[in-house]
């Protein structure tokens, strides 16, 4: 059975990994969908308008693909047990072009955006399984806080898998994160 988790992963962090691995435990093959894969395929949603802003999406699909792939390999999850794909969450009519719609869609809910995604997936007839639902104050690590720490020169490496820290420290990735901060 296929399972699917999804997120922007605009710096893949340790709490993202808990979500991804919880999904992996419940299926034979996990598909990890990277949302907002292309700036042209990013729409604002009233449930969380900040998610669509350019400064909230500094990393390319390629950089995020590399982070997810490296972090999953680092856990020892066999490569045959997962795939990483674009997943344009804002365009339900395109989902079938990127992901198996007969998969079980795993979700975590912390806020209005999580509730909105649940409704979108269910409205489109998908098999959705909520892994956990928690109040916003229990969300823990956020990519926004990590990006802010990077920009401020504060410690952040402990919040991400080692393989992700290595990718973030690459000159091109750091430059991308810092350039968006400088533009604001």
Automatic annotation (TrEMBL):
Answer yes or no on keyword Transit peptide. no
Q: Where is the Cytidyltransferase-like domain?
A: 5-148
Gene3D superfamilies, from UniProt? HUPs
Q: State whether keyword Zinc-finger applies.
A: no
Which stretches are transmembrane?
none
Q: Which GO terms describe its molecular function?
A: nucleotidyltransferase activity
Domain of life the protein comes from: Bacteria
| Keyword annotations | Nucleotidyltransferase, Transferase
**Any Pfam family matching the protein:** CTP_transf_like
Please report the name of this protein according to its UniProt entry.
Cytidylyltransferase
The scientific name of the source species is Desulfatibacillum aliphaticivorans
The root-end lineage is:
Bacteria, Pseudomonadati, Thermodesulfobacteriota, Desulfobacteria, Desulfobacterales
């Amino acid at each position: 059975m296929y399972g699917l988790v999804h997120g922007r992963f605009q710096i893949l962090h340790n709490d993202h990994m808990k979500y991804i691995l919880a999904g992996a435990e419940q299926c034979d093959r996990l598909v990890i969908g990277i949302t907002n894969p292309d700036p042209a395929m990013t729409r604002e949603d009233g449930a969380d308008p900040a998610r669509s802003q350019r400064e909230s999406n500094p990393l390319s699909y390629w950089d995020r693909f590399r982070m997810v792939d490296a972090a999953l390999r680092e856990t020892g999850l066999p490569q045959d047990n997962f795939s990483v794909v674009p997943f344009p969450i804002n365009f339900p009519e395109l989902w079938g072009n990127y992901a198996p719609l007969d998969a079980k869609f795993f979700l975590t809910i912390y806020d209005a955006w999580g509730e909105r995604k649940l409704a979108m997936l269910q409205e489109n007839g998908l098999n959705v399984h909520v892994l956990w639902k928690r109040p916003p104050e229990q969300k823990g690590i956020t990519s926004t806080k990590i990006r802010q720490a990077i920009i401020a020169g504060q410690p952040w490496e402990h919040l991400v898998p080692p393989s992700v820290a290595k990718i973030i420290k690459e000159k091109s990735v750091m430059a991308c994160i810092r350039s968006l901060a400088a533009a604001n």
